[in-house]
Specification:
Layout: E1 3-7, H1 11-23, E2 27-31, H2 34-43, E3 48-52, H3 58-67, E4 75-80, H4 85-94, E5 98-101, H5 106-113
Parallel strand pairs: 1-2, 1-3, 3-4, 4-5
Helix pairs in contact: 2-3
Length: about 120
């Protein structure tokens, strides 16, 4: 099974995301801070990570993951509240692979993660 980290300061967002993504076959780890997410990445790089743009140190987290050995293989989804070009470009420059609009729901997560083989 593929691993995925949700890095978001909101308990509710992490729990909802974890439930949906677990049902799609992912092993999901939650991180409330950038430091927790980096610690999880140090232990084992995930297949993908969802990083909330509002998380303190979000851009540094993305940059640090990309700098790790094999960090280029991680799918990094930068989660933004609206399609704000400035925030999106900051995320892209830091190394984000793609974007998710927040709030996400079952449909949006299934569109992004449901078509990938999670085995």
């Amino acid at each position: 099974m593929q691993t995925l980290i949700i890095a978001d300061s909101s308990d509710i967002v992490r729990k909802v995301g974890r439930k949906i993504l677990s049902e799609l076959g992912y092993v999901v780890t939650e991180a409330a801070t950038g430091r927790e997410a980096m610690t999880a990445c140090d232990a084992q790089l995930p297949y993908a990570i969802i990083v909330d743009s509002g998380l303190e140190g979000a851009l540094s987290l993305i940059t640090n993951i990309r700098a790790m050995p094999d960090g280029k293989s991680v799918r990094i989804y930068y989660c933004v509240i609206e399609a704000d070009l400035k925030h999106m470009m900051q995320g892209k420059r830091a190394g984000a692979s793609d974007f998710l609009l927040k709030p996400f729901d079952r449909n949006s997560l299934t569109q992004v993660f449901g078509n990938r083989e999670a085995a």
